[in-house]
Each structure stands twice: as structure tokens, then as C-alpha cells.
Design a protein that fits this description.
About 30% of the residues are buried. The chain contains no helices and 15 strands. By secondary structure, it is mainly beta. The radius of gyration is 18 Å and the shape is elongated. The strands form 4 sheets. Strands 1, 2, 5, 13, 14 and 15 form a 6-stranded antiparallel sheet that branches. It has one domain.
Length: about 200
Amino acid sequence: MIVLLHALLAVSSQAAVPSLGPREDARDSPPMPYVAQDASTFECCQHGPWRAIGATTVAASTAPGAKIAFTVKPADTVRALRGVVITSMPGVARVIKAVTLGYRGDGKAVGLSLKPGDTLITLYPMGEAYDRFWYQGNFYDDEIDMPKDGFGSVSFTGFLKVESRPRYVWWVQVSNAQGIVGWLANPKLFDGMDSCG
């Protein structure tokens, strides 16, 4: 479930919103920071034991400048408990050709009928070119942009123009062998993260 938790971050909730078109205003974006609970930025993310393949530090909280809870050395194992994506600035994708797209969080197709000039406010990538996005006060998911290290093309290439990408941090709560709990920011140096790998 997606929850807006402003108290989770010690950052300003007045983050700049990208330039909107003539038919949009600031109400067409969710309040920032936007916090997606139990979320990930790639499709096959899995929780459980992760084995470090490089050294990294684990923060005590997701707040900017948080102290270090513990360090992880290569071959150490941590247990990934849950993920949170915190978006500080949304991205913008414009519709340049009429298109129908959109899924709700439950995976059911919605079929938004979009026309040139409509604006999608992107919040974070979900993997496989999918993004969580906001349109006229509601959250949806669909293919918006292919990541730089991805393959293929987005189904709606030629229908959407990505003007900016969201700024976000994917935080994963982990515990070590001593039971100390902390947060990894955008973790990469671990085996066991990807159930498809």
C-alpha cells in the first residue's frame, strides 16, 4: 500500500515540481516527498538473505545525513526486510500522440484515453520500462521509459515524450547477523537481490 509519510524524511516538502503545461497546475502532482511503501525499482526484487559482493555502509534511517548503523564487508550476509522508494522530485512525460494506457496498482487495466498535450507525472521506475505515475489525481502504472541498461523499446515509443525523469532513492531496510537494523540506499553490491538472476 502506498502511503505519504512526510515525517519519514527530514527534507522540505516544498520540492520543486517540474514545469507543467498550460492545462496543469501544482495540484496535478502528489505532495513531495512521495513515499511508496513496500516498493522496488526493478521487477524481480526479492527480500531475504543478501550476500555482499562489495563493501558498503548502512544508514540508521532514511533521513538525509543519518548516522551509519553498521558497515557491510564483502561476503557478509544481511537480511533484506522491505523496500521504500522516496521521490523528491517527479518526472514529466508528455503525450504527443493519442494513446490508451494505464494499470491500477492491483494490475488491472484502466485504459486511460490520453490526447496530445496531456501530462503524466512519473514518480519512480518499477522495472521492465514500467513507471508508477500520477494522472489527474490518481496513481497508475505502465511503460513510460526504458532504463539506460535495458533492452528493446517501450510499447508507447512515438506516443510519449519523456521530458524529465524523477529523482528518487530506493531504500531497503536490512538487518545484520547481530540483529542491528538499518537502511541501504540504492543497493547494488549484493547477490540474492534478483529472483530472475
